[in-house]
Amino acid sequence: MHDTFSQCKHAWLTELRKQKGWMEHAFSQVPDAKIHQRCLPGVNPPSVIITHVAGSMKSRFTDFLTTDGEKDWRNREAEFVIGNENREELRTRWEAGWSVAFVSIEALTESDVMRTVTIRAEPLNVAVAITRAIGHCAYHTGQMMLICRSLAGTDNWQWATIAPGKSAAFKDAMQEKFGKDSE
Questions:
Q1: Which residues of 48-78 are buried (b: 16+ CB within 10 A; e: fewer)?
Q2: Residues 6 or more apart from 132 whose CB is under 8 A from it?
Q3: Cα R_g (the chain), whole angstroms
Q4: How far apart are CA 43 and CA 59, in angstroms?
Q5: What is the enclosing helix (H) or strand (E) of 2?
Q6: CB–CB of 66/115 below 8 Å?
Q7: Mean pLDDT of 97-107
Q8: Going from the N-terminus, what domains does the chain have, and what CATH number goes with each?
């Protein structure tokens, strides 16, 4: 089981780091003047998504194994109020939330994986709670990519994933890197 647990923990951390990186990549392309701007009425601006994801990660993973993931000190509703923080202040909040998550997951032991934790009083085993956090991040990553691209403009957009029209070149590069498929 130890090998399987190590692989699962590695997969969780790898996926969370990928989602974090994609959101940062998108956010970095938005001009400072637009980080608090909605692309459409009712759509959260990048700053709100940053604040919300950071708040969620900090709340969920602070004392992860021993306290409910929705902390009393968290004001989730305030995360959706458009603020006036500058990019560096948002980055500091962002890194603090993610740091708590990464430290907590890295500290997990094999015996922790089947323990029960709660989120808003709902009991979940550790593996399910982490998978849920990954899904939550992926949902917001998609939002962030689309919103930031609409605010930054598509003319100079730098794709974090496969750019339109580049699928074949990407497949060729991956086959070159990892070896041809056996067809």
A1: bbbbbbbbbbbbbbbebeeeebeeeebeeee
A2: 119, 124
A3: 18
A4: 23
A5: helix 2-28
A6: no
A7: 98
A8: 2-178 (1.20.120.450)
